[in-house]
Amino acid sequence: MINPTTENFKCLQWNARGLTKSKLEEFRHYLSLVNPEVALRSETHWNSGFAPKFKSHVHILRKDRPNRLGGGVAILISKSLQYSPITHNPPDTIEAIGASILFKNNQHIDFTSIYIPRANCETEDIEAMLDRSNPYLLGGDFNGHHPLWESNATVNKAGKSVYEALINDQC
């Protein structure tokens, strides 16, 4: 196990819109080209009967939808990293999974993969995800539209919630 430095660390976020068998080889190829230490995945569409393997990322944290198709989040972590899972208790409007990675300076950085399927989360829901004692990175499909990140966007509820949570958290 190694503890990386923040200077050479690579993290990938990919909205899969279904990382089923047909898309798996494409993703594996991309992983081999980019070689990130951590890959955040949203909308995996995985279920308990599907267990993909990745050569360079043997640690796979995932949260699948138990009772219906779609959704799902995952974090692929390089086999060389020390990590611990993060317990998130998001509301029903958010799917999330997290890991805390140990860096060389004995500092942890928390990584969370998020999927908000219906764009109807509340500001407090996002704020709860930002309530971390460690530095953090959230990546995912928020289904939020706002002019701050899309110049021609019409603001929707998720976009307003994400924006307000970031302003309140002073990001």
From TrEMBL:
Organism listed in the record: Daphnia pulex (Water flea)
GO MF term list: catalytic activity
Cleaved signal peptide residues: none
Name of protein: Endonuclease/exonuclease/phosphatase domain-containing protein
The Endonuclease/exonuclease/phosphatase domain, residue ranges: 12-155
